[in-house]
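### Sample
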Amino acid sequence: MALKSYKPTTPGQRGLVLIDRSELWKGRPVKALTEGLTKKGGRNNTGRITMRRRGGGAKRLYRIVDFKRTKHDMEAVVARIEYDPNRTAFIALVQYTDGEQRYIIAPQRLAVGDKIISGAKVDVKPGNAMPFSGMPIGTIVHNIELKPGKGGQIARAAGTYAQFVGRDGGYAQIRLSSGELRMVRQECMATVGAVSNPDNSNQNIGKAGRNRHKGIRPSVRGVVMNPIDHPHGGGEGRTSGGRHPVTPWGKPTKGARTRNTKKSSQKLIIRSRHARKKGR
């Protein structure tokens, strides 16, 4: 998909750059594969804000996406590529030979009419899903499982991918786009190819209202608040907020490491995504 720019006939269109979605399906999604989606507004079950800057936005239908790809050794034909308001990637409606329809995350270079299949040993082409045990080393993959049978969790956002770089015992080594090198069990499934909509990060939304339509509220910097509202607040004139940036609750932020190194999954990370920064 290409990018689409606009003539500056209004202030909101000056600099506006959006994704050209003219090739996507223009109708409604398949009703049987959708669910209602309740807005939370960033609140938890006690009604308190646990995630700031959320609220409002256009009403959405949730599309039930098949992240597990458990229908093995049965071909499916891509019926159409659709827009999904709940994620940055596009989704593809596929129809299996037994008539069942499912949504999957659409990879790049997957077109209407293409055939896809998942199984223990299938062809290495975009949209096909297989475990790492039957995959050649060097394959570009997405929608990667962390635990066998749990469904894909890694590399699901627009334009993301990982590379299968090696085997070690019962584990597969994958290099993520963040630079992290980690291991997952070879029984874990992954889908061949990179995720669709790689130009998503090159958009310029043009005006604040478009963010409000997405359900994103304005973010106010701590340095413009009062001392009662934020640790960076107050001071005479314009201040930088101090030497160490913190959250409103005093926790270090903007680059401070928050991962618990005692997690059991820590041993599966061969090289951290921060490894390149240590040389500075």
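The CA atoms of residues 148 and 188 lie 5 Å apart. This sample (Large ribosomal subunit protein uL2) is used throughout the tutorial notebook.
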